Amino acid sequence: MLNVEAVSRRFARDGGAPVVALDRVDLTLREHEILALVGTSGCGKSTLLRILSGLDRPTSGRVALDGRVLSGPTPEIGMVFQEPRLMPWLPVRENIRLAVLDQPRAIQDQRITAALDRVGLNDAAEAWPKALSGGMAQRAALARALVRQPSILLMDEPFSALDSFTKTALQDHVLDLWGRGGFTVVLVTHDLEEAAVLADRVVVMRGDPGRVHQVVEIDDPRPRDRTGAEVQRIKRELAVSLEG
Amino acid sequence: MTAIEPIDNRPAVDLREEVARATSFSAVLTWLWWRAAPWVVPAVLVVAWEALGRLGVFAPNLVPPPGAVVDAVVKLAADGELVEHVAVTLGRVAAGFVWGVAAATVLGVATGVSATARRLLDPTLQALKAVPSLAWVPLFILWFGIFEESKITLIAVGVFFPVYLNLMIAIRGADRKLVEVARINGLSLWATVRYVLVPGTLPAYVAGLRGGLALGWMFVVAAELMGASEGLGFLMIDGQMTGRPAMIIAALLLFAVTGKLTDQLLVTVAGRFLVWQDSLATSEQESSHA
Question: A167 and A228 in one domain?
Fold first, then answer.
């Protein structure tokens, strides 16, 4: 699994002390869990996610995947960004193909069809991104991440740009895929209800310097009732942890 | 004006559908008016021109009536000269365009991709850009003679800058977020160029090509006015020397028509690669009414 060991990340700042986005963060992912990273903006949660993805490197410390130090993006770790980030010049199917270009053509087609099927976008396979709704575009991005068959799926506030109805539907969809998929999810969010509904563990981060403040375990069995007492209680606990 | 305002902002495609569905006479009238609107001002100008000519307001030896201009064009066409002059000018623009675009593409990619190349080359190119392009004429004539080489070089210089600048800026401004998608999916450099960078810079490149083509047409006039024995610019000079204003105006109109047609050709060809864009097709459809 993925181990974060004393990871720090500093950013140089013109004419001042460097910004400490992450300060000696330790974290170990568990098999097949949903881990939420919550915190106010500037707490380092997105920086941590980018380091887990291999897009950014720690200034010190290391991230190890099954014992090997992570030195860059790897097929085992998939990423869904806040925006769908589809290439506007490629139809949905070809956007997803980008993630499996290293495979033989026949495997590509087979996997793309399976991925489209999983996110329910078969009918939109040939559509241009400009024709997709926000929710559909994000599902296409999800398919692009899943088509590589990652063991860890990183999600950077993937629902934050969606309207509340689409957001709930897509959250349930992700939960369903996770239930069947056997992969681990790391979800960055500032929406405490989202964390309370989806996560097995919530890592509460605080900024300046970015550190893990508290880890909240959630035992509430799924499916969880969004308006239920337990979800609301966890929400309150997280809110207190964030600000208290 | 108020009658057409509700339709004013809709793309032309919607209008056609609307006409197909329209049952009322007034809807057809509105559509006809919308289609005809761009031709109203030119038509009024031509009628006024003809009328004022006949009333003797203009001296006919300076401002020939529209009919005389049409006669001039017809006569040129009948002699076979029209095709010849247009072809010569078109050939010069094409040659200058190809050379200018080739140089601009190579240098634009280099300075767009490499900071070293940009540091090394861009200041010099920007300085050269500051030279008013017609100022090159004496030097080019001295270097390349008064025939084709100097003309084509001048046109190529005109074409070069808009293409170069657009391409360099587009490459430098490539969407970092999409490049990250390429990185996270393990795309090779070649695949990143092919699937992310080239399509991403294409709209700006096409805009540069159109700007370059427009300057190419501007410079071919300059080149041909400077001294030529054939071409549309030569027709103008010839018309001036021999006191035939109808010929000058005819050449002017031919410049407008061929320039517009080559631009339309460029847009049509490029449009095939840009169907994914929201804007280009619609905006072109709008401007093609003009």
Answer: no
Residues of A in contact with B198 (CB under 8 A): none
Please name the residues in contact with A121: beta carbons below 8 A apart, sequence gap of 6 or more: A92, A136, A139, A140, A143
What's the domain range around A218?
213-244
- Contact state of B177 with A85 under an 8 Å Cβ cutoff: yes
Number of continuous H segments (helices) and E segments (strands) in chain B: 13, 0
- CB-based contact A211:A48 (threshold 8 Å): no
Examine the domain organization and report whether B35 and B160 are in the same domain. no
* Residue ranges making up the domain that contains B19: 5-58
Cβ of residue B180 closer than 8 Å to a chain A Cβ: yes
Nearest one of B216, B204, B151, B148 to B174, comparing CA atoms = B204
Number of domains observed in the structure of chain B = 2
ipTM of the complex: 0.93
**Per-residue DSSP letter, A1:** -
Q: How far apart are CA A117 and CA A92, in angstroms?
A: 13
- CATH classification of the domain holding A187: 3.40.50.300
pLDDT in tens, chain B (290 residues): 334 444 445 455 566 666 566 567 788 888 888 888 989 998 999 899 888 888 888 887 788 888 888 888 898 888 888 889 899 999 999 999 999 999 999 999 999 888 899 999 999 999 998 888 788 888 888 898 888 888 999 999 999 999 999 999 999 988 999 999 999 999 999 999 999 999 999 999 999 999 999 999 999 988 888 777 888 988 888 888 888 888 888 889 889 999 999 999 999 998 888 888 866 444 444 444 33
Instruction: Choose from B177, B183, B184 for mutation: most chain A CBs within 10 A.
Output: B184
List A186's β-bridge partners, or say none: A35, A154
